[in-house]
Amino acid sequence: MKKPALSQILPILITTYGDRPWRRRLEPAGELVQTILSQNTSDANSGRAYDSLMKKFGTWDNIAKADISEITDAIRSGGLADAKARYIRSALSALKAENHGFDLEFLRKYSVKEARAWLTRLPGVGMKTASCVLLFSLGMPAFPVDTHVYRVARRLQLIDNRLSVEEAHIELERIVRAEDVYRCHMLIIEHGRKTCRARYPLCNQCTLAALCPSCNSTSR
Ligand code: SF4
């Protein structure tokens, strides 16, 4: 089967799940902390951990100078609390030492490549976390690649199977129009959670089945 074009896939995903226009979730430092908290846990757990952290400390500055054990206690509901507490304090301490402090709005002046390079210098901040900050908080066309995006994009052959997760970020940013990056990211994740699941994808119910080169060829 011929590889489908994103211009064919995106309208079907919008019809299936509804459109997802961009809206800011949190300011950039908040998005950075929230993304670290979301690693290897559910949105509900990381959301609880974020609320608990903010209730206890109130400001980024207070977290940057807090003991790791105090931060760990506040975010325990998010799992991997000790490691996440270290990442969060290290990243916020590094931001505090920068000229701009916790205000990352200046990153809008940069290209995605430059802004991501700036963020990934911070301790504990990888390509996906940096891309989440740029996309969700600053509305820049960075395409975070999580496990759902990586799996679905490969099954649909939007990207080459041999690409690493890091390379997939760059390739998806190349093939998706800047104004569609947010909706495309959100809809592919939703499709991965609800239909194109890691184990036993629901190909027989999938609205992309007629276009998908992997339809009914993957059992897990
Ligand atoms: S047809 Fe199957 S493998 Fe292809 S996108 Fe749909 S659920 Fe995923």
- Main sheet attributes: strand count, strand direction, barrel closure: none
The average pLDDT is 94
Give the full name of the CATH homologous superfamily of the largest domain: Hypothetical protein, domain 2
**Uncertain residue ranges:** none
Q: What would you report as the Rg, rounded to the nearest angstrom? A: 18 Å
Question: The CATH topology of the largest domain, please?
Answer: Endonuclease III, domain 1
Compressed to H and E, one letter per element, the order equals HHHHHHHHHHH
Structural class given helices, strands, pairing? mainly alpha
**How many structural domains in the coordinates?**
2
The separation of the N and C termini measures: 20 Å
Q: Could you say which small molecules are bound to this protein?
A: iron/sulfur cluster
Counting DSSP E segments of at least 2 residues, the number of strands comes to: 0
CATH class of the largest domain, please?
A: Mainly Alpha
Topology diagram in text:
Layout: H1 6-17, H2 28-37, H3 43-57, H4 60-64, H5 68-74, H6 81-96, H7 112-119, H8 127-137, H9 147-155, H10 165-175, H11 181-194
The structure holds iron/sulfur cluster (SF4).
